[in-house]
Design a protein that fits this description.
Mean pLDDT: 91
Structural class: alpha/beta
Order of helices and strands: EHHHEHEHHEHEHEHHEHH
Distance between the termini: 38 Å
Bound molecules: ligand FEC
Oligomer: single chain
């Protein structure tokens, strides 16, 4: 039987959505997203076309790997004993395969969280399931309290406020006061309302907190990237919402996709191509904030999420009945404090 070693590294598992690397990978990737149901050939072609329009593939994996490496560097400052890993929900390297590697590396204590700040059972539940499946399969004694959402993290809200301030600089000074800021996040099927999912509430809370930090008067929240699954999804959709704003006389818009943390298809296509085209048709000026990607202040945000999770794990709304056990504090954890 395996025994836990005190000098084993603490594992940090950053989880992201996953992205296909080639056009041939689009169909199996899409099938995985759909829980094994093969999409229609038309839907696959449509998705391939979106990848083609953003340059053939998206940088999601590279960015996630790079941020993992920078976070590891940060956590190891002053001798901290951390290994940071990146695992994907819907494509390689799958979360389960990465957890196998963590077991081989002798990791027992793990902090795992999705690179998505807000909580919904549909979204975070998929990450949780990937972890549970891997734990069941590996039979390795991981001490792994599932990380909650981290939308309330003060450093993240401060960083988002900085991104909004920087984003506003793209407009001429005299226009800035009239810019409408639209915060957005991935839409989900409307049925999440029937189980009192906290997703919408958290998104509005985050948007209001960031708006308050910047001192914004003109802001709204809209959803984006709704799927085509034959059931209603949460709205308003950002592209349609541009029509509404145009009707109200708004001409300058700053898009702030605060539900995401890196450049990927939902940003590079849905905002930079689709929403941008709509804005152009309407004669509106649309700029977007930079994504956190590998910014140093984002690495600090992630380090603080790790620290918070190690010190005081809070039950995740999606799994309120799970008993959350904090990994015991050790010297390795103290180094987070500068
Ligand atoms: O750059 C890339 O290649 C990947 C971009 C990508 C991210 C992402 C994030 C989220 N999704 C969320 C929910 C859903 C639900 C469905 C769904 C479908 C897709 C499809 C693609 C896709 N998502 Fe995604 N999502 C990304 C990409 N997503 C491609 C399939 C084609 C389409 O519908 O557009 C519907 C599943 C179904 O059909 O049954 C639900 C949520 C997030 C934000 C949290 C996170 O990042 O994990 C929520 C990035």
């Amino acid at each position: 039987m395996e025994t836990m070693q005190d000098d084993a590294p603490v594992g940090v598992l950053l989880m992201a959505y996953g992205t296909p690397e080639t056009p041939d990978e689009v169909e199996p990737y899409f099938t995985h997203i759909r829980g094994g149901r093969t999409p229609s050939p038309e839907a696959v072609e449509h998705l391939k076309e979106r990848y083609r329009l953003v340059g053939g593939k998206t940088p999601l994996l590279e960015i996630t790997n790079e941020v993992a490496s920078r976070l590891q560097e940060r956590l190891r400052e002053n001798g901290g004993n951390f290994n940071v890993y990146a695992g994907m929900k819907h494509w390689h390297p799958y979360i389960g395969d990465v957890m196998e590697k963590m077991a081989v590396d002798g990791v027992h204590r793990v902090v795992a969280f999705a690179l998505a700040p807000h909580c919904s059972r549909i979204s975070l539940g998929g990450y949780r399931k990937a972890i549970d499946d891997a734990q069941g399969k590996l039979g390795h004694p991981f001490d792994l309290p599932f990380a909650k959402c981290w939308h309330h993290n003060a450093l993240w809200r401060d960083m988002m406020a900085t991104l909004v301030r920087e984003g506003l600089q793209q407009f001429p000074e005299e226009a800035r006061g009239g810019v409408m800021v639209i915060f957005s996040a991935h839409s989900l099927p409307e049925r999440i309302r029937t189980w009192d999912d906290p997703y919408e509430r958290q998104l509005l809370e985050s948007s209001a907190a960031v708006a308050e930090r910047v001192g914004l008067k003109n802001w709204h929240f809209a959803f984006q990237s709704a799927g085509n699954t034959g059931e209603p999804w949460l709205g308003p959709d950002i592209v349609d919402y541009l029509d509404t704003l145009h009707g109200e006389g708004v001409r300058d818009v700053l898009s702030v996709p605060l539900g995401f943390v890196s450049d990927h298809l939902e940003i590079l296509f849905d905002i930079d191509i689709e929403a941008q085209e709509k804005a152009k048709q309407l004669g509106m000026r649309l700029y977007r904030t930079q994504m956190p990607n590998v910014r140093p202040d984002f690495v600090e945000v992630l380090a603080s999420v790790v620290q918070e999770q190690l010190e005081a794990p809070v039950p995740c709304w999606c799994y309120p009945n799970l008993v959350q056990v904090a990994p015991s504090r050790s010297a390795a954890l103290q180094v987070l404090k500068k």
